[in-house]
Amino acid sequence: MSADLTPPDILRCAYLDLVVTDLARAREFYVDVLGLVVTEEDDETIYLRTLEEFIHHNLVLREGPVAAAAAFAYRVRTPQDVDRAEEWFAARGCRTERRGNGFAKGIGDSVRVTDPLGFPYEFFHEVAHVERLAWRYDLHTPGALVRLDHFNQVTPDVPKGREYLEDLGFRVTEDIKDDKGTTYAAWLRRKDTVHDTALTGGDGPRLHHIAFATHEKHNILSICDKLGALRLSDVIERGPGRHGVSNAFYLYIRDPDGHRVEIYTQDYYTGDPDNPVVTWDVHDNQRRDWWGNPVVPSWYTEASPVLDLDGNPQPLQERTDSSEMAVTVGADGFSYTRKDDEDKGFKLGTSL
């Protein structure tokens, strides 16, 4: 049984393998607009990294027929941890596939699994090193993306996902609940930040977003200005703003295929063993945005498919617990709620 096995020692989220339908358009978005660095590319695949990264890539763009996430990849501490990952997931009845030469350029011995939630996870240790561009300020733009920060996954069963990821060695930093015991979302980490991945309740499995970090919030504002100057402000879905959960300053944008990208900065340290879990009430309007700005409905309802190990889209399972949007967002799509407030009206109504 997996309970008798040692889980792999996961260091951090490392890269996302993402399928796009038009590689040239995706390159314009991620390279020309967002400024990610091209490590390698060919007619079918582009390998991208952030400015402070020293491993081969943080994002793989592959051209394919269906826009979807092919793998959520994590680096593990030792080569033996790849073996542990394969054994741990196989013991849970999960499908696994091992490639000694890796599933992507610059990555060595790797195992991919279909995890208990239906997501394609990858674990690897061996990696090619590339130039870390932290000191190449001549290459830094005002909106410089410096690190991959986290993934966010949509799943119909957040408690199940939370339990499984905790068994895998993740630690919960924050969550959203109601007084009936429903868990709407959870944030889990391996590195000493708020999260390497998060679980958002909804029909799944789906990719909600990938998040890249900047140093300061002014970098995010610069990205907004650049999008405006390029007449691309319609790719902004939500923000800029500050989250209550994670305390981070954020911006959500959509790539040409609709994949959601968060630009993220200024969360907090979580590395102590007694770091307390922060629980938010689902009716606290500051949980998702500290300034009380409404969350647009698409943020709750839209997400990207994920693929199985054969490259086919995973079928969706319907969430049976209450959705966060259903209990907090009004019929016009916007809400402004605080538990026990007498005034529970809408902050914003329908906009034309």
Describe this structure in words.
The chain is an alpha+beta fold. 16% of the residues lie in helices and 31% in strands. Strands 9, 10, 11, 12, 13, 14, 15, 16, 17 and 18 form a ten-stranded mixed beta sheet that branches. The protein is globular and about 55 Å long.
Explain the layout of strands and helices.
Blueprint: E1 10-20, H1 23-33, E2 37-41, E3 45-49, E4 59-63, E5 68-76, H2 79-91, E6 96-99, E7 110-114, E8 120-124, E9 147-155, H3 158-167, E10 171-177, E11 183-189, E12 197-201, E13 206-213, H4 217-229, E14 236-242, E15 249-254, E16 260-265, E17 278-281, H5 297-301, E18 304-305, H6 324-328
Parallel strand pairs: 1-4, 5-8, 9-12, 10-17, 13-16
Antiparallel strand pairs: 1-5, 2-3, 3-4, 6-7, 7-8, 9-13, 10-11, 11-12, 13-18, 14-15, 15-16
